[in-house]
Each structure stands twice: as C-alpha cells, then as structure tokens.
Model the fold of this input.
Amino acid sequence: MANDKKSLVVVESHAKTKTINAFLGEEFTVLSSGGHVVDLPKSKLGVDVGNGFQPQYLLIRGRGKVVKQLRNAAAKAAEVILATDPDREGEAIAWHLAEILKKNNPRISRITFNEITRGAVLRALENPRPIDLNLVEAQKARRVMDRLVGYQVSPILWRTVCTGLSAGRVQSVALRLICEREEEIEAFVPQEYWLIDGTFQGRRTEPFQARLIKVANEKPAIPNEQAATTLVEDIRQQEWFVKDIRKSKVQRHPPPPFTTSTLQQDAARRFGFSTSMIMVIAQQLYEGVKLGGEGPQGLITYMRTDSVRVADEAIEAVRSFIASNYGLEYLPSEPRRFKSRAGAQEAHEAIRPTAVSRTPRSLRKYLTQEQFLLYELIWQRFVASQMAPAQLLQTAVDIVSGNDELYLFRAHGSEVLFRGFLQAYEETPREDDEQEEAPTTKVPENLSVGEKLVLLEVSPSQHFTKPPPRYTESSLVKTLDALGIGRPSTYAVIVSTILERNYVEKRDRRLVPTELGRTVNKILVANFPDIFTVKFTARMEAELDEIEAGKRPFLEVMERFYRPFQRALEAAEGKQLQIRDSLQEKTDEHCPVCGKELVIRWGRHGRFIACADYPRCRFSKSMEQEEVAVDEKCEQCGSPMVVKNSRFGRFLACSAYPKCKNARPYKIGIKCPKPGCDGDVVERRTRRGRTFYGCSRYPECDFVSWQEPVLGPCPSCGNKLLYKRYTKVKGTTLHCPECGQEFAQELATSPSTIHNE
Done:
C-alpha cells in the first residue's frame, strides 16, 4: 500500500504541521504532538529522591487521543522522524515520543531546523541524528529541580499564609528582585540640587546653551535656591570667553541581531507589548504565515535563543541586499561577526528573517498589525547589524569667566555626518536612563577660541535625586539575562507567573509588589537565605548548561542542589508556627468580646482581623475592603450597588446595607454562551476557594467553566467568545473554542488587529 511507504514527521504544534506539509510531498505524513505528552503527576511529588532523583512521568490527561493517533500512524509508517523544537524542551519531547513510539516502529530518527523554510527542512531530512541525551538530561534536571522546590516549599506557604500560593526556583528570585527594588525606593531620601544653564551669543552666531560644570575647578554643589541665587548674581557680573573648542569624529556601530532577551526588551519598550505577547507573536512568525500563492512560510528563525551567530548564507544574502537597496557606501568591507555572551548556545542562530528579500512592506497585507510590527523590528535590526557604522561629529565648547576662569560652562553638540546603519534601525532610549545629563545643542560653526561672548540669560533650575526606577517587564528581563537567571525559553513565563499569582501588579507598565508578594518574599528570604538568591540560582542555571554540554552528570548536579535545599526545608518545616506568628500585624483596635488586642492574620482566603487571644477567644472579622461602585441600582430599594469581597469571591451588594441586604453574584460582563439562555456569566468560588464561572440562571442553566470567558474577537476566526488559560510553559493565553487557536491575551482586545488573509 502506498500509505505504508510514507514517513511520519512529528512536530510540536498544529500550526507548524500546515507549513511543513506544504514543503513535503505525499511521501510524508506530518502530525503534531501538541507539546509534551508526558509529565510529572499533579497529585504527588513524582520524584524518587532516594533513587537518584528519577522522575515518574505519566501520560498527561487528555493526551491519550493524540498518542493513539501517533502510535497508529507510526505503525503504518516507513519511519518516524521527530522534528520538535531545537532546544532542551524539544529534545525532551522527542525522547518521550521515541520511548512511546518505538514499540510501534523502531525506525526513529531526530531532525532539527532553525527556520521553517523548504530549504532548511529538506536539509534537516538529509541529516538526521540520534536524540541528544545530554539535552534530555538537562531538561530532566530542570524539571526535577522545579518540582522539588514547587511541591516542597509551596505547602509551607499554604500553612503559614494562605492556600493557593506557590514558590518557584526562578520565579521567587525574580519576585525578590522586585521586592528589594521596592524597599530601595521606600528607603530613598531625595536630595535637592540645582543646575544652572546659560544662554550665550558670539559676534556672528545665534544664541546657544551651555551648562555650568565647574566652579573654581570643582564640580559645583548647589544644594538650595539661596546658593543658586548667589551664584547666578555673580555669574551675571562676569565677562565670558571661549576657552577651548574640541571636535572629534566618532563611529557608532550597529547592535547585533536580536536574541530572545533583547527582542523582548526592545519590543516591550517600543510597542508596550508584554513579554508573553511578544513570544506568542514571534512563535506565529516562526511557525509560518500564509503568503498568498506561496502558501504558509516561516518568516523568522527560532525565537528562543541567546546566540547572536548568523549563518554564512544569511550574511551573504543581507550584504547583497544592502548593496542593492542602500548603496555600496552602506556596506562594510568585511561581514560583521558578533560574539555571544559566555555560555550561549552557539548551535542556534540569532533571531532574523528567514529571507531578507521579504521586506516588511511586501508582507504587510498578510500580517496582523502586531505581527507586522514585530517582523519589521526583527528585519530592521538584522539588516542594520551588517551595515556600515554611523559617523558623528561631536563638538564641545568650554566657556570661562574673566581672567580668573572661576566659572566654566560647557556646550555639547553632535552632528550626524553619515547615517550608516541608522538608515535601517535606531535604538530606543533605555527606560532606566533617567539621570540628568548635559543638554545637547546646536553648537555654532563660526566660534573661535578667545572670542568674547555675551551672556544673554542665566537659568537656575531645581531638581531632586531620584530613586532607582521600578522594573518594567523589559528591564526585568534585561536584569535576569545579565544575572544569568532563567533562559530564553523562560523569561516570559517568569514574568507571567508572578503576575498571575498576584505577587506583582502593573502600574503604568511598572512592576509593583503586592502585599501578598512581599509577604511571600519575606518568608522565603528569611527561611531559605541561601536558596532563593541570585548567586545560587545563577549557579544552578550554569550547571544545567554543563549537563547539556556533557560536562557534568545529572546525579551530581542534583545532589549539589538538593543537599542545601533539604537542610533549609527541614529547618523551615520545623518552625511553621513561628513563621505564622511573625506575620501578625498589630492594630489600634481591641476585641469587642474580651477586650484583648486585635491583630491582622493571614488565613486561607487572605488577611483578616482576629483577637490576639486566639484560640481562647475566637472573635474575627474581615478586613475592610474598598467598595467599588458600579452603574447598577438595587432592585429592592433603589440604592446604588457596589462590588464587595467575601471568602467566596466578589459579589454585588446594596450600598444601603445593613438596611437592605440585597446581594447577587458578580457578573463579568458576558452573556451566557449556552444556546437559548439569556443569563449572564457570573464569578463564583468553590468551598476550597477555587474560582469558576457559571450562569446567573443556575440551576435552570448548567453552564460552568474553570476558564474565565472573555470577549473576543478571535484574531483567527472572529469568534466573539474566548477562554483565558494559564500554563507554566506559556503563561496566560487566550483560547478560541471554535478554531482551537491560542494567542496572547492582548491580541483579542487590540483594536488594530487585522485578520490573516
């Protein structure tokens, strides 16, 4: 039978099957595993610590149908080719699939490709290789470490703070960075200082500005208005001369093409995208977008990378493009070779377009607005990376007072002589560059040394020193990358997890720790002082890299990790009551029952007020929550309704309580999706505190969902109802029940979203 001669190619995602199917002929069948098919059990630790830390993998619930389909296809295929992603996770998925499918077909090989193009896929098929067990062991070590920390530390948080909390090997260190930055900000005492700028004019020049930088050869310290006024009065009495004019030509070289970290930083700064949204869009560009008659094409190389290496053929193509489209003066004599940071995976490439000839403008009609912005950014940065440096003329003019040169002003100017790579790409200012710098001005051409100047105006200005800025998603990723914490595949998940856990919230795009986040961090830092640290976490990441490189065995790294972790864990478990008591906060209130002091405690549903004499006195009451007004009236008394919180979650109550005790479930603003039902979707909680969503007409309507329904439309099919999902791998995403597509949360509500054609 012809079907028996087909080769089975297994990839990770459904979207990728469409693209690769278009490249391969009828001799191949391309199927998707949908990611991992086995994982550690959710109900128990799943790691045999006493037996070499061996994981006990189980088939993931709901993946039985996929595995059955793959087994049937493998049994009929001539061979099985595993083409999952070219990283640790992809290698581990390939190994798990091989273990499952080898009984059905022992002819199994592994291929990898850095870009989903016809040429790359065909070359990979010509060069199959065995599964890299070092990569598999590194992924196993990472998974086991994360499970040990998550499943053994989180229960301590449940018993001392409240249920539903979690600790993570890397996420907790990111939380610590954010909390410590907040403590720095709170402890910061701003200092007043003043700057003085002068406006000068020469005999043949327009007015220009300069800043006072020295008084009596010392940097001026001007602490208050009185000191500034005294200086200004004296400065106005002086005569002024040009002491020196310095001009220098400098070159500004282009940055390397993007890694995962630098792409997330730049795209977040420019477009305000979250890191998880950036990775979802990049995944779409990597897996393929339908380009009219060309069919689906992968537009960028693999997006999880810390390497800035570029393949020779790609360099050759972009140099040819630069010469043809920008001119030979924009092409350096030799190709640029960028050096990746130590420990980077040089087998990968930087993120670049798969074909530089596909300009952003040529693809505009095939891409959504978000896809277009990200592709254009990747394309521009890659082209710029191989262009000539920009040439700048920098000028500094020193202006001194009288013969004693008591005061020194300096004017800075910068002029672009040749734009070079700036024709294609310009970097955005970094968010943390908030220091007061001397202003740049257009320095007049016809000034000469010794020339007398007229001081037209002196302008003192008041300033205050600033605390370090709060992290944004962009600057947190930059810090994690610089400290060696996390890897390209985890940055977005780390940020998404601490937001999802309500440890951190966003204010004006800045990450601010919540009371819950600060409490969790306080417990972890106090009881695991050597575990949740930058140094320890970075060392573990480096040792995972060494497993991957075959330099260290799995067991040695696990033992080096587990010994100090186990000691800290046992110590923390022995003082849980002490930890719980340390979280109590005093109030100014007294118990109405026994008169003892009231304190704030943490309970399974958050903070509450209780008598300090518990358990002899069991008086307690909820913390006063801020009531949020809504545009609804009470149907019983006509008073405004407000949103309140209880142990069962949010609910609507009459603002006239206790006179009116009318209350009803909290509506999330979406109509019940069940056909024929005119009810509203409302938020509820189970007895164990887990939130779920049901219909307001229950029990007449039995609609219920663990996933939060949200308004679309779906960017792929236009369906109006979507569901919010959270996974450790992808963070928060939206899922369309109609077409099965999954995408970033922001894409569903973005007004600029354009459907793929």
In short: The two ends are 38 Å apart (CA to CA). The chain has a mean pLDDT of 87. The first helix runs from residue 14 to 23.
